[in-house]
Amino acid sequence: MSKSNTTGMDHEDFRRCGKDMVDFIADYLTNISERRVTPEVEPGYLRPMLPRNAPEKGESWEDIMKDVERAIMPGITHWQHPRFHAYFPAGNSYPSILAEMLSSGLGIVGFSWAASPACTELEPITLDWLGRMMSLPACFLPFNPAHDNEPEISITNTDCDSQHSGGGALLGSASESILVAMLAARTNKMKSKRLEKPSIEDGQILSKLVCYTSKLAHSCVEKAGLIAMVKVRQLPVDEHYSLRGKTLDECIQADKQKGLIPFFVCGTLGTTSCCSLDNFEELGQICRRENLWFHVDGAYAGAALICNEFQYLTKGFEYVDSFNTNPNKWLLMNFDCSCFWVRDKCAVINAMSVDPLYLQHKHAEKATDLRHWGIALSRRFRSLKLWFTIRSYGIEGLQHYIREHCRLAKVFASLINEDDRFEIIGDVVFGLVCFRLKGKNKLTQKLLLYLNDSGQIHVIPSMVNEIFFIRFAICAKDACEYDMHIAFQIIQTHADGILFEYQKTTSSTSIRKI
Amino acid sequence: MSKSNTTGMDHEDFRRCGKDMVDFIADYLTNISERRVTPEVEPGYLRPMLPRNAPEKGESWEDIMKDVERAIMPGITHWQHPRFHAYFPAGNSYPSILAEMLSSGLGIVGFSWAASPACTELEPITLDWLGRMMSLPACFLPFNPAHDNEPEISITNTDCDSQHSGGGALLGSASESILVAMLAARTNKMKSKRLEKPSIEDGQILSKLVCYTSKLAHSCVEKAGLIAMVKVRQLPVDEHYSLRGKTLDECIQADKQKGLIPFFVCGTLGTTSCCSLDNFEELGQICRRENLWFHVDGAYAGAALICNEFQYLTKGFEYVDSFNTNPNKWLLMNFDCSCFWVRDKCAVINAMSVDPLYLQHKHAEKATDLRHWGIALSRRFRSLKLWFTIRSYGIEGLQHYIREHCRLAKVFASLINEDDRFEIIGDVVFGLVCFRLKGKNKLTQKLLLYLNDSGQIHVIPSMVNEIFFIRFAICAKDACEYDMHIAFQIIQTHADGILFEYQKTTSSTSIRKI
């Protein structure tokens, strides 16, 4: 309880309440499977449970926690629940939670080196570690591996023309990473067009800029296009749900004939819809030829690159200009933690930097200032999550986690395949299985509704080429074979009911028709 | 220690390590004043202290924490230190840390109502609380206070034409808030221009759009202009460092004569340079007349509106279209927590929304989906910080905190005023005092350098109208009068040395001249 109404909580209160919170979290995660995976509340449930106005006097911690139980927990969709198979995993692990605790406790803000040297320096180091774990081409790494055995060379802001211009930073989301890449590409292309024709106005160039992506790319590509005010072409995919070079090339040539200016291509390593892969080698060659910025979004599936057996996926990365993956999805780190690497960091800094006096400091020429990498000026000490989690699991532990999810997806897919009422959509490569009831979409739509309404399991839909299907993602940190069997049993039971009902209806319709 | 190299840390490990971390944080914040406020490291200090590659095997928690002490703590600029007077406060308090812990522990991601009802619903409730605490005009509040006594009406996505179209959300930073406001304004203006002249191309309109702000506005306005690709006019301020209506009007008229299209004005409530205020009433009237979007950035000083005696500052808010303040600055909440209110939420949603199938859900028509409010799709459960902190302190506790910082700024200013070698720059209204040594800028520049090099105190510079000065911000949560006296003593001691040296130099120069 607070010592005084006007001071919130003192050090000793925090020692007690903080330790209670640690137990609350451990209890929650230990016993999570006893809860419904989705809540039973309806929109608008919360406001009638809370006062219309904030309290005048401070309240006790006990009262606040009572309200967490009473009002918040009943409205939680439990992303860490073993029956949660929606979206993609929401990364979470104890080392990551500990990092968030430390980040909050230190209460620092890192926008320049001077404002927080440790935060500024740990970030490229952890992005370097992860980039190496993923075998990214050396040109993306914050530190040139060729110099590993040489004396330390400090990171600088001003090495835009040095031998090694790659780098990486943590951004708030994949959406921000893709927007930043697009803005850097836009700045580059506008600069070269202005050089070609100095009299041209920026607005004239802008209204001709076109970016290309697959129609299965994440919606944030479209959003980035809205913000950057450029046209976005969402191109069709092949039978493996992959964007191919020929499709891209035809669209680019048609656009150029209309006088438009292609400038950016966003490929996807693991689409949200069905975890498909674009053909980076084909797309990359076209980008190189046409001088387009090539970004690859590997928000979820990029994490798999830490396993050797998945590194074939980077075929074509020699043409890539920037790449992002979100350890807050599939590497056990809490949101937000989007890793963004770029071949030419100066392209990003040129597109994003403004430099007021109050942020200048005596080390500015020697030090990297991370504020130039994203939209926000300030940043939490986010790299602690990477550092703690990678160190606590080790490369082997993280590989084990990824491999286990991929193995379980295959286990689940084999259960689906054994029941001939179902079919799999797309390839099962990572931790996602897309499936449907054979036949009309409405059967699968009904199955989805029943599954989610049951509160026993949570899955979400997708649709590609008019085929409606259910995405089943392996999400729980400690998912095991038992979970696959339970999930399949739940699905089978609901499918039984739906198909029974459907057969009744169709046969009665047939009868009526007769 | 981990039970296994491949599983990171189990529930029982976390109970132990989490409680140790609680003590680590409490110890850190209890004893922080024993440390230097700024670190002694040089750029590039960290990498030689850490391995070039991530570890293959998981490491023990004890080893990780040893490295926190060995490698991270020596590189921390201590924002919570009683001698930290740089930038603005980095909000921090125990209830806020507890909220971050719970947010991490739950590990949910809130981008749609279905993905997390509690996260989606608590956010507008807490923005409503805070908006009422600040006496914001009712049009900005997520819930219309006129309906307080009526049965609950749920928040909807689709009420764009209803009586009450205001609302609020938490964004990642003031930079994002201002960018979102600018994008909404851009979309509105382009739409109306297209209606006037359907044949006009978007690029043609865009190349004519102009936004206006004071030259003391935060650099993120310029950055938002870079991203939105619009011209930004940084206008001169009056003798109180305030942007006035006449200055704005003259620039607008000149731009219109050139065929340009004014569309957005960003006023500041508490500039970063010297905490000055623009004249919202004068600016607002012009915005109304010219049909411009009027945003007010109150990132720091907006917090003062929770105290009645500061509510005169909202004079002119009847013309304001959107407003932001960052409780992560001056309301004891950890970064990131930027509150953004808007008079017409549909203007924001129209500018920002994309809607793929995998994010659609059966409640979509009845529920607000917060993903339409910002750049990122995903979001942490950030409103817990607002909820915990407001409840734990109560309105009175937070008011007390704000008033105490304002009072201490006046105490410090009176110390400065008593020493006639110094002068105050601007008005001391909030928790910031700007001062300098009388005479040439280089004296104050030297003083700044000496103060920061000493490690005894941390302050940063600013410069307005060619006058270089030092910003002294009251930052520590529990700052007291003693801290003001100590800070002033440190400043006096360094000033003594500099002025002594300077007098020696000038007198020896005089001698040489003779």
UniProtKB/TrEMBL annotation, chains A, B:
Q: PTM N6-(pyridoxal phosphate)lysine: at which residues? A: 329
Q: Is Hydrolase among this UniProt entry's keywords?
A: no
UniProt keyword terms in alphabetical order: Decarboxylase, Lyase, Pyridoxal phosphate
Question: Which GO BP annotation is one of this protein's?
Answer: amino acid metabolic process
Tell me the cofactors it needs: pyridoxal 5'-phosphate
| Gene3D superfamilies linked | Aspartate Aminotransferase, domain 1, dopa decarboxylase, N-terminal domain, Type I PLP-dependent aspartate aminotransferase-like (Major domain)
Query: May I have one GO cellular component term?
Result: cytoplasm
A GO molecular-function descriptor:
carboxy-lyase activity
Q: Which Pfam families match?
A: Pyridoxal_deC
InterPro entries named among the record's database cross-references: Aromatic_deC, PyrdxlP-dep_de-COase, PyrdxlP-dep_Trfase, PyrdxlP-dep_Trfase_major, PyrdxlP-dep_Trfase_small, Pyridoxal-P_BS
Top-rank taxon of the source lineage equals Eukaryota
Give the family per the record: Belongs to the group II decarboxylase family.
This chain belongs to the protein called: Aromatic-L-amino-acid decarboxylase
Can you name the source organism? Adineta ricciae
